[in-house]
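Q: What would this chain look like folded?
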Amino acid sequence: MTRFRIWATLVLVLAILGGGSWAFWNYEMRWWPKTITRHQAEITRILESSGWAAPGLPGKRLYMVSFRTCPDCLRFKAEEFPALHAKNVDTRVIEVARADKNGIAKSTAVERATVAQIWLTHDWKLMQAWESVPVEAWKAPGIAPADGDMARTAVIEAGRTMVEDLRPLLKANGVNFAYPLLVWWDDQGRMRSCACEKRETYRFVRKELGL
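A: My prediction, written as structure tokens:
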């Protein structure tokens, strides 16, 4: 009987420890950003040379890879950008026009024209204007089409290539590419990243950017 109690107690303790470990992973650790320790220079070069648009604030840099209709990207911008900007975080948004997949179009001609213009001009106000109206209402006023223009089409392809180049580099650091893809540097100078699709990741980003 005593042996039974010992075993029962041991099983209970292990169950509690296991449950606690699972809870810690599920509610905390799984949402942690990753530290980029491999291919740092190449990732930085790719991000810095892309067609990002930013408000030009003097604080920390936060790179965000996005596309116009990405719901998780729009949510992060709406919920987190105001506080980040108040802390002078320079949100460098890299919009891409996704490539067609299995014959299904993932971007429109208007989207491609606007993305090309943003890449070429780094125009933060243009991006804000684009996102201030419903997708179907945006007509890209005064913007030259990308389709049929070799140079602007090359810009669109550069954005798509950027995404494909980043995938394996981030994967080597434990980050599976998804939108929005965020990259920043914390107070210790570490390059940090997450595919921040869920709100649960936001608090870690905020903390590391000084909020």
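The longest strand covers residues 61-66.
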